[in-house]
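Same chain as my last thread, 165 residues:
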Amino acid sequence: MNLKRVIRHLFTTRWTVSRAFPPRSLRAIEEAIATNHGAHTGQVRFAVEGDLDVSALVNDMSARERAIEVFSELRVWDTEHNNGVLIYLLLADRDVEIIADRGASVNVTAAEWEAICQSMEGDLRRGKFELGTTRGIELVIELLKTHFPAERTVGDELPKTPTVL
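reply #2:
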């Protein structure tokens, strides 16, 4: 168990998340997800979580492990073409994870997803939460448009609104 990490999580409150992602930022994120939705067949979801609970910290849960749980909890896997993509941010760790369902991972490499995560994390370290998130969403959408262009109009299977956990 990393004591610095535990302290960081204990001091990341709901207020910290609200300050990093005020309502106008959440609207901008929703708009970024909705933009060009008809140009690809993927389904993008964004979730931000301030901190992990004590039991997760004691068990040394990683942001990736938590992102996989959130992927399941938000049912991102439950799309017709298995093309859901979750962009998960654990604010206390400034860690971004992208979890893509098997349909969305067919042509996109782990290195491509990781490059987007690293770009977003750089902006987060500089306190540019909205910019980093919207830019990351745009990069995910560009990958989806390249690898999964829409041949027909695809309906919304997942909500576009960001989830604050």
